[in-house]
């Protein structure tokens, strides 16, 4: 799992996505989440 600081940023972004800001949030997300954490994020999205 990514560091807790990164997790907090991801959780905040996911909870605040809207149709109006999805492109901006996607760009931010790409910058924050490293490829090695993709499996963690996939599990988070399925379980939550």
From TrEMBL:
GO biological process: negative regulation of translation; nuclear-transcribed mRNA catabolic process, deadenylation-dependent decay
Domain CCR4-NOT transcription complex subunit 1 CAF1-binding: residue ranges: 2-48
Gene3D superfamilies to which the protein is assigned, alphabetical: 1.25.40.180
GO cellular component, one term: P-body
Highest taxon listed in the record's lineage: Eukaryota
GO molecular function: molecular adaptor activity
Protein name (Swiss-Prot/TrEMBL): CCR4-NOT transcription complex subunit 1 CAF1-binding domain-containing protein
């Amino acid at each position: 799992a990514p560091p807790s600081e990164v997790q907090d940023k991801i959780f905040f972004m996911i909870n605040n996505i809207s149709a109006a800001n999805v492109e901006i949030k996607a760009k931010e997300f790409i910058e924050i989440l490293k490829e090695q954490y993709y499996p963690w994020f996939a599990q988070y999205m399925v379980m939550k």
